[in-house]
Amino acid sequence: MPDHTRGAVAAALATLALCVGNAGAQTVSLSGSLGSKALLMIDGKPRSIAVGSTVDGVRLVSVSGSEAIVEVKGQRITLALGAAQVNAGGQPSPGSGSQIVLSADINGHFFTAGTINGRAVRFVVDTGATSITIGQVEADRLGIDYRSGRRTYTNTANGVVPAYGVSLGVVQVGDVQVYNVDAIVLPAAISHVLLGNSFLTRFQMRRDNDRLTLERRF
Q1: Which residues form the signal peptide (predicted)?
Q2: Own/partner pairs for 67-75, CB < 8 Å, 24+ apart?
Q3: Multiple choice CATH, 27-89, 1.10.760.10, 2.30.30.830, 3.40.1370.10, 3.30.572.10
Q4: Given a cut of 90, is residue 38 above it in pLDDT?
Q5: Disulfide engineering: 61 pairs with which of 69, 138, 148, 211, CB 3.0-4.6 Å?
Q6: Residue 1 to residue 135: CA distance in whole angstroms
Q7: 1: which DSSP letter?
Q8: Looking at the chain, which runs of residues are DSSP E strands?
């Protein structure tokens, strides 16, 4: 084979490998919706997609006010509004990621789905909370043995209240896992789990307008 042909083949193979690698790292999240269109963030770039259309390999199957269903390489993925980016290429090991990207809702709050010890929860980012904060009813649902935890007190909008200090085995948002995270369980009912600084300080935080990026510290 002539040298120039070998060079062309090598270049083509390198390009193909790059494309395959990029496809494997593709991420997607839902930033908003308007009628039958969804505003998706695909690999960090905003894309407006109508139901049934495909952009950058992502097909929009359906969209509602708070979630969208997309299809990537035959795999259907449900995206919650404002939740962390989902890796839509390949199947990475659970917890293998190092970055969380969130989008603010219309009120400027950052909500995201996640898990505590493998059980699904809904988080809201709260930089004013010292620790992850969980209401007692939610802690019971999650099976957290907080009554055996450390008795303490914490400041709330209603003043100082008794609470339990516990350690959560694993907290996951997107494909990022954090182990042994301090938390507080309050006797009050809380609509969401507060994602406080016991989790957030494990990351470098950067906000760009309505986008919050958490980069894992190592």
Answers
A1: 1-25
A2: 67/30, 68/30, 68/33, 68/38, 68/40, 70/28, 70/40, 72/26, 72/28
A3: 2.30.30.830
A4: no
A5: 69
A6: 70
A7: -
A8: 27-34, 37-42, 45-50, 54-55, 58-63, 67-72, 75-80, 86-87, 99-103, 111-116, 119-125, 132-135, 150-156, 159-173, 176-186, 193-195, 203-208, 211-216
